[in-house]
Amino acid sequence: MDEALQTLIATLLQLVLSQPQFLPAPGQPEIPAPVVQLMPQSEIAQAVCGQPCGVRAYYIPEKGVFIDAQLRFDDDAVARSILFHEIVHHVQHLRNRYSDQPECDRLKNREREAYVLQNQYLLSNREFVKMAGSRFDCPS
Known about the structure:
CATH class: Mainly Alpha
Number of strands: 3
CATH topology: Arc Repressor Mutant, subunit A
Order of helices and strands: HEHEEHH
Radius of gyration: 15 Å
Structural class: mainly alpha
Strand content: 5-15%
Number of domains: 1
């Protein structure tokens, strides 16, 4: 991984950690940067959807972020927002966000929160694109 990407990851992590819901409680350990692996989008689609789809990145706790190697982080705020979204998931996992909820609700709420923050990131970067997530239907 090149130095520019490492710097971007550190910057985005600090931005996530500055969000009110992620401010550390006294005694909470520091959040390390996630491992980020660049890979072909087709492999990401296969891993997430089991077939071709539009997914560009995903996060697996204990393994890190897997993100489309074709994204141009240096000049594309939307690409950076995708990485930002996955870093939100990394922080959610390490801060145990929604961990008191059943798995489906936890995943749904983490995804919703990541999209809200991603959209705020896009607006702050003057990108007037709204990212929308997949719909979760949890059993009653």
